[in-house]
Design goal:
Length: about 550
């Protein structure tokens, strides 16, 4: 039997329309380093119409890729709304890519226009000559952009545009946006989000099982808009009518704390390294972080010590979330189940997350069999659902897919209540004497030590055990602690054979372009003999 429902396609233009018609008074505040520039949703929607019309005057049409090379700000939000709604494809370029990767992704996507922050002109200019698909660069903000040759300013483009634009009816399955993975090996891979996936994912972000974003919120978008759509926050905030606070390139602890104290956001999202630094700064300066009702933290394992510190010092729950560029990215959020309070709640909060409605997860063991959802059998996570990618853009490789499921490369367990717990990446897990050591769990155990600021653990070759863990530790300022003291601290917290016997004290853990620990760099430094390593020769047993 046919349904009697209307067949309204799920389009980004509907997100745009709703925010404009219903939440016109909500605002976007963009930080410029000393003050805030404000625009209402009504003004943003009007600019989006002018932008679409201006881009059309440059010849941009259905399916054309428009790149953005920008930090988080109002104009970037306008691009988020206008480009997909006109039928073109928003390609958010990671401003921290190495030139060779940047050239590759612009070329691979075939971007015809790039909207670029003036402050980022030098980075784009390094590759622009080798990107034949790019016909026009549009510059946002002030600065010397002569290195880019002839450009057009964003205002000029808006001036060319009409104040009205008739948003077309599109096929909900066509591409709305695209983002390349920050692949640490090989070339980045493109993920093309559809209108349908963006619409559904945005709705999911308003669920209380996830971020629960609503019109009462003010959302501080720290996670870059070039990283998995800033975890979907801009679209979700727009449709819900939450104010948006955009920090541009001011992502260090000091300006972030200034923004938080001035604008009093209620919700924010960023990777753990950022919250670690914000916490350290706020503690040292007696800053007020109490405006948040919740902070979403993910992209890498969230240390329990970080979550507890926010709870205890500011009464702010830091909620761990899991996702990937390939999953739009929301996949799991560690909200405790009904009734779990106190320490019981922590047993859930320290897990990676509970699978959100819309995503289905399973664990596949080393032999390729689907494992029990018992919370203890370890395997690789596979996911599927309407906002999980089914392939990569213009790429025929199939090794990341398995019977219609995406192979995440994440290793861990899944329990009967849908909580997944990642213990490692397939490439980072340490294989020692036929057993697995989770580098992430070891890092968390180390970071629970009060003198440890950050710790990254990598596998290094070992003649007897195949691999052994090397702990690279950043101490808090003024702290002085020996490897044997740290080993003593780990005894009883992890299995004995997990306790590292190679230690390196470093100034900073190298990070990837999206702020995650870059273990590849540490492994290379070790292999080249560029790390000062202390070996403690602990006896290795298997207890
Ligand atoms: P990206 O595509 O750059 O967002 O990276 C996705 C990867 O980040 C995942 O496959 C995980 O390895 C990692 N990741 C994301 N969230 C978490 C989390 N809460 N805990 C551990 N790893 C995470």
């Amino acid at each position: 039997m046919q349904s009697t429902m209307q067949e309204a396609p799920l389009l980004v233009r509907e997100i745009l329309r709703h925010g404009k018609q219903v939440h016109g008074r909500s605002e976007v505040a963009t930080y410029d380093g000393s003050s805030f520039r404000r625009g209402s949703f009504s003004e943003v929607a009007l600019n989006a119409e002018r932008l679409a019309s201006g881009l059309a005057s440059l010849g941009i049409g259905n399916g054309d890729r428009v790149g953005t090379f920008c930090f988080n700000h109002q104009e970037h939000l306008e691009a988020y709304l206008a480009i997909p709604s006109m039928g073109a494809v928003l390609h958010t370029l990671n401003v921290r890519l190495f030139p060779e990767q940047l050239r590759y992704v612009i070329d691979h996507a075939g971007d015809r226009v790039i909207i670029c922050d003036a402050t980022l002109a030098p980075a784009l200019s390094r590759v622009l000559d080798e990107c034949p698909s790019v016909e026009q660069v549009v510059v946002v903000g002030e600065g010397d952009t002569s290195c880019l040759g002839a450009t057009m300013s964003y205002e000029e483009l808006l001036e060319r545009g009409e104040p009205r634009y008739d948003w077309p009816v599109l096929d909900e399955r066509q591409a709305a946006g695209m983002c390349y993975t920050s692949g640490t090996t090989g070339n980045p891979k493109g993920v093309a989000y559809s209108h349908r996936s963006t619409y559904l994912h945005s709705l999911a972000s308003t669920s209380t099982a996830t971020i629960g974003i609503s019109s009462s919120d003010r959302a501080l978008v720290v996670v870059p808009q070039f990283h998995a759509n800033a975890w979907g926050l801009p679209y979700a905030a727009w449709l819900a009518g939450a104010d948006l606070i955009m920090p541009r390139q001011f992502l260090q602890a000091e300006p972030l704390v200034r923004i938080i104290e001035a604008e009093r956001p209620t919700v924010a999202a960023a990777v753990p390294t950022i919250w670690n630094e914000v916490l350290r700064y706020a503690q040292a300066h007696g800053s007020d972080l109490s405006s948040f009702r919740t902070i979403v933290c993910g992209g890498a394992a969230v240390p329990e010590s970080l979550m507890r510190a926010f709870d205890e010092l500011y009464g702010v729950p830091v909620i761990q979330a899991w996702g990937m560029t390939e999953t739009s990215p929301l996949g799991a959020v560690a909200v405790p189940p009904r009734g779990a309070t106190g320490e019981e709640a922590w047993t859930y909060r320290r897990k990676t997350g509970r699978v959100v409605f819309g995503v289905e997860a399973r664990v596949v063991d080393i032999q390729g069999n689907v494992a029990a959802r018992d919370g203890s059998t370890i395997g690789e996570f596979e996911v599927r659902g309407p906002w999980v990618t089914g392939s990569y853009f213009a790429d025929t490789s199939t090794d990341r897919f398995h019977d219609g499921w995406l192979r995440t490369g994440d290793v861990g367990t899944l329990d009967a209540l849908g909580y997944l717990d990642i213990t490692d990446r397939t490439k980072d897990v340490i294989k020692t004497g036929g057993e697995w050591i989770s580098s992430v769990e070891l890092e968390n155990a180390l970071m629970a030590h009060p003198d440890v600021f950050e710790a990254a653990v990598v596998a290094v070759p070992d003649a007897r055990w195949d691999e052994r863990p090397l702990a690279c530790v950043v101490l808090n300022e003024g702290a002085d602690i020996s490897p044997s003291e740290l080993e003593g601290f780990l005894e009883g917290r992890v299995a004995r054979f997990w306790v590292p016997d190679r230690w390196s004290f470093i100034d900073e853990v190298p990070k990837t372009s999206v702020g995650k620990f870059d273990k590849k760099v540490l492994r290379a430094r070790y292999a080249e003999g560029n790390l000062d390593v202390v070996s403690t020769d602990r006896p290795q047993d298997r207890s």
